[in-house]
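In the previous lecture we treated proteins in isolation. Real proteins rarely work alone, and many bind small molecules. This record shows how such a complex is specified: first the sequence, then the SMILES for thiamine diphosphate.
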Amino acid sequence: MSTKIPVPDIGDFESVEIIEILVKAGDVINKNDPVVTLESDKSSVEVPSPFAGKISSLKVKIGDKVSKGSILALIDNNESNEKSKLEGKEKIELDKLEVVQKEENLLPITEKIIQQAESTIDQKPKKIVPKKPYLNGNAADIDPKETQEWLDSLDAVLKQDGTDRAHYLLKKLTDEAYKDGSNKPFTRTTPYINTIPPELEVKSPGDQNLEKRIRSLIRWNAAAMVVKANKKNPELGGHIGTFASAATLYDVGMNHFWRAKNNKFGGDLVYFQGHSAPGMYARSFLEGRLSASQLGNFRQEVGVDGLSSYPHPWLMPKFWQFPTVSMGLGPVLAIYQARFTKYLINRGLIKDEGRKIWAFLGDGETDEPESLGAISLASREKLDNLIFVINCNLQRLDGPVRGNGKIIQELEGIFRGAGWNVIKVIWGSYWDQLLAKDKSGLLIKRMNECVDGEYQAFKANDGSYVREKFFGKYPELKNLVSSMTDKDIWRLNRGGHDPHKVYAAYDDAMKTKGKPTVILAKTIKGYGMGKSGESINITHQQKKLGEEDLLYYRDRFDIPLTDKQVKNVEFYKPDEKSDEIRYLKERRMKLGGNLPERTSFSKPIKKPAKDIFANMLKSQGDREMSTTMALVRMLTNLLRDKNIAPRLVPIIPDEARTFGMEGFFRKIGIYAHEGQKYEPEDSEQLSSYREDKKGQVLEEGITETGAMSSFIAAGTSYTNHDLEMIPVYTFYSMFGFQRVMDLIWAAGDSQARGFLIGATSGRTTLAGEGLQHQDGHSQILASTVPNCVSYDPTFAYELAVIFREGLKRMHDKQENIFYYLTTMNENYHHPEMPKNCEEGILKGMYLFKEFNNKGKIKVQLLGSGTILREMISAAEILSKEYNIDSDVWSVTSFNELRKDGMKTERKNLLNPAEKNKKSFVEECLSKREGPIIAASDYMRSFADQIRPYISKSFYSFGTDGYGRSDSRKNLRKFFEVDKEHIVTYTLSALAKEQLVSSKDAEKAIKKYNIDKDKPMPTEL
Ligand SMILES: Cc1ncc(C[n+]2csc(CCOP(=O)(O)OP(=O)(O)O)c2C)c(N)n1
Ligand SMILES: [Mg+2]
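The predicted 3D structure, ligand included, written as tokens:
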């Protein structure tokens, strides 16, 4: 039986053109297979078949205009399908009906409940409770007996029914207090003690003595590396204090938790704090992965086998995985890495092996908006594969992080509020006994009231100072430590330096389900550096340790080096057979291998069919479209390729509709880890907002930082997950490079592969949006990133050739590059691809058209992006009205031309005896006649880049200055890149070369109403 396939609800669109027919009579198709592609001037969508079956006839052809209900084809479908479909539809209708009826039925009941509730409220006499003074804050306890009774009750519940019950009761009490409304209990933070009590700590199975020895050796070598480099050359710098504070945090992870990638397991991913790099090198030295000579060449990377200052995969591609030293990037990248890992798992592309993503950050670093800006995403997405460790050494570079407050408490409140599991590791084991004896709670009170500035000062002094200033405030506390010597008091350690406490925290984090964990570890900056750097404000910058300091450091950590060796700042590594080395290696073997280590075992993605973009290479006929639309069409084509389709990761920060990409919502779904819990209001529509656990689109919401982090996660999936992915991140070009340049730099460092698409680009092309939206410089910014390949194409076929080459270079040849393509929202005709221009498109320019009919005077007109079209129009005017011939060149990339120019020039300079090689620009232009006029929708410096490689006179025009809102025509006139200005300036340039009369140029100025006195747009 034949059934009609109609056009479904396509939203507000009427009379939409059919641009592709994807089936023919006789084809057997499945339900949801695409039948045709519709394209309006705003978006391009495939229409899926609502049934499976055999197409019996087509009712439309390419170019037809259709609306909702138009019949596209007839299909012979088997009845059961039809029935099930109908049943499905009826069921939905019925379900809907039931909901409505239920709602109606429920209404009176609801009303009754409300009435009942209201009557109780009324009947309940308002109790006027006299306010007790302690309700107003932390004032002294006015009724200690009553307090004790409550505490005893709690104690009894804890002992008899356990913590869950106690938790339940406390929550009930809190809820009750909220209802009463008199005073809201404040639960943002918990007391300033460890989250995990000693009796619940899971014990480390490690050999603590050996681990301590190993840690000491690592500490020494890390410090020695910095001091040695600095001795060689004071320019070289480095940091000792950061790693000194974090050594235990790293060691416990390395010895017991972080599993490496191998053929059985995907590996945990660890984002190391950037300036703790010497510690990682020092451990790798003991492991035999780095040599003493490499350590000796720390921060000396030019010409020798040295080590990079910070984690840079670009510089040490077999070692570092994540660039973190630009503060704030590590944390946000780790969050999106954890999310991307779940995305791959939920989409069925990798197995769920319980891998974890660990991120180490400084407490000072949390001031960066990027550090904390995405933490709610982590809890919303239930990223229990994510663990933050914040090294709270209370100091940053200049001084205390929160001298007048407590950074740990502040962070606890923020993370708890965001729904994270927060584990505070404040006090070391030496405090346990004192805390156990603190029946009155006075010790905790004292801990709570001290601010970080004081805690820092305690550790910059000594035991007697701590006795006096900390315990001395209350006689009871002074008493508590009266039997302890100053040395004992000094030994009272901080949680982050206690491997037992750290182990217990990591263990808890590993077991936490349903939410991310943050460990707030209190440490001492410059731990062990003594007077030269422990807990003092200059610790961060301390890289020169004098002989005295070094000897102290050696003694402090018991390093078996002679005084002479210490003075020579020698590294120390015990014999391969020593217990230390054997233990250290064995631990890593047990955990699967080395860390950090960067490898890739991904397989290249199979090339798409040769003709995948064939429709882009043809003339688009009378149809006008934008290059953004052309891109959407190309992505739609790629989604039909079975090898490429699953690997595409479209990333959009809340702009899909702007770019006409909303068709992807229905087609491939929006990734949502919990699926879709609601029926979207537009569920009947073709572009319905469909969320799906297996969804493919990363709809990030309004966060370019988040979107860029996802781009990096997907673009480096080939190394972090051994699976190549193709991120295509499309954004408003103005909110790309200038908003997230540092992340783009990190993408380059990470060797991410993918496509960045700066849509709605061009300062005069995005017409009405004004100064903050109109981009005339992102291409310039892109040119600064060494491994970013950028293009500003005009026509659909150029985009197709470039995109295809991008796939080839990144996924066939596995080059570590990424692309930046600017696309526009101006609709215009797209001609057929001229013959033999592919090489030129890729190298940056090709001859688009020659105007040769007059044969006297000639100019070379170079245009890029939409302004190429102004050039073509100008060429027509010059030919018709002034008898001037021209060669019109489409410049797809001034950036690529410049790269080639630089390389060629350098080669020629280095080989003075050899015949000069020609740059590509020269190859194209040197034999052509006439001055060169170049223009783009970007600043003049974009086109200016090729000026040095051209021996002819060269004039460049562009859109320097702030954008503003107006029509394209007016904006192009304002920025002097319209065809009229190009004609006028060309005449002027020719007049200067005495090829035409200056009168012609003067006449054109009048004719086109060009105001000579108008200031430069940069001044307006
Ligand atoms: C974006 C950025 N701004 C500034 C710096 C310079 N810088 C390097 S370390 C540092 C202090 C870090 O303090 P914290 O985060 O507390 O780390 P700690 O060394 O104390 O562990 C600063 C300001 C940087 N690396 N990145
Ligand atoms: Mg710090």
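Summary for your notes: The longest strand covers residues 884-891. The pocket of thiamine diphosphate (ligand 1) is lined by residues 242, 245, 275, 325-327, 362-365, 391, 393, 395-397, 401, 525, 540 (CB under 6 Å).
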